[in-house]
Amino acid sequence: MSYVSSNRKPLLSRKATNDGHAEKSPYFDGWKAYDKDPFHPTQNPSGVIQMGLAEHQLCFDLVQEWLVSNPEASICTKKGVDKFRDIALFQDYHGLPAFRNAVAKFMGRVRGDKVKFDPDRIVMSGGATGAHEMITFCLADPGDAFLVPTPYYAGFDRDLCWRTEARLLPVVCHSSNNFKVTRKALEEAYAKAVEANISVKGLLLTNPSNPLGTILDRDTLREAMSFINEKNIHLICDEIYAATVFRQPDFISIAEIIEEDQEYNRNLVHIIYSLSKDMGFPGFRVGIVYSYNDAVVECGRKMSSFGLVSSQTQYLIASMLSDDQFIGKFLLESAGRLATRHTDFTDGLRQAGIKCLNGNAGLFLWMDLRGLLMDSTVEAEMALWQVIINDVKLNVSPGSSFHCSEPGWFRVCIANMNEETTKVALERIREFVLRNGNKPNRKEKCWQSDLRLRLSFRRMDEVLRSPCIMSPHSPIPQSPLVRTRT
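The line above is the sequence of 1-aminocyclopropane-1-carboxylate synthase; the predicted structure tokens follow.
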């Protein structure tokens, strides 16, 4: 495809031709490897198993049962077709009142009914991706920055930076304290930004964490509120995994924290939510911005016209989330099934001598393969990842794609497959570790000399220059992590 005309003038915009989408990352490369050779138990049993997609597929039977029992919830059934005309016609940007009321009620229930949410503060968007971009457009100008604790979701570089031209500055966290977000780390990241003359507009927290599968405790959330109030910057809390907590301690929302102290400036607090993870509906593209700032709500409503949730989806979701008995059963069963899958998988890894970060939430594990690295470098992590995806045929995501400061960690999604596929994945891991994990000298591991894909120098150079895997310790002005995405 030609991007330059015969007279050398660009045919397309900078947005269309730059790498700001962050797609050149092992995170997305793993998906491509799966798409080319997808596992199937009978048709392609040696294919790649998809463990890089955080989907909740463990409770679809409950949803299907509800749909069969409630045909009137869909305008495409005999019992619901009478509502077709009303729903198909134009709806304003506020969303259907029944939808906003149901979502507000569901958000409260997921958080233990400890806080209530105002339906009039709910702003719709096309999934959490659209919600993150919307809040960024509302809060930041091109070149402004947000602090983000590492490791963080690989898609944030796209969601918050590509079209907005905002920046993400890493708040470096370490495994020595289970990647806890500390005030010291926040202050250091902020000081570096000030020194580099970068305008910091806010702090982005993911709670529960993707990719760690852990939750932020009350003290950490209070410290974050104290920090943003002192700096007079915004706090964006991504809480899209709130209902995936499957064991103690309980999830604590930032909404609960600001209720405890009236001195906190609520105008600085914004929550991102969706139904993609908690309910397992990523295809419905239900994203929510819940802001305590009136101006943000007003601006977000105007922007939502570029990514509204379809009125048909709103109608169905409103009916489903309003069914208290179903929601209670779903949340209880979901937590139980996630707990079982987590226990089964971590036990299987433990038998193979592999440890994971101790998590209690999310649809994934943060797997520790540092012991299998030839060296403690990004290069060694990438070499190991290439073997896992090309030889072991598992699409797991390397920690460097999540900007982890320590090589050797991998995110493994465990809720997007059935039990039989899970067993196959665990068996492949065990066989790989048995073949390669018991060598006394890590530098003599046989996979090192048997790399079938034989990383070329050119490919490795591309890997090292990818903005998704550069070290968070890089100086801010030069680091691709914080460069404006243009």
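Note on the example: The chain has two domains: 14-60+334-465, 72-322. The domain at 72-322 is CATH 3.40.640.10 (Aspartate Aminotransferase; domain 2).
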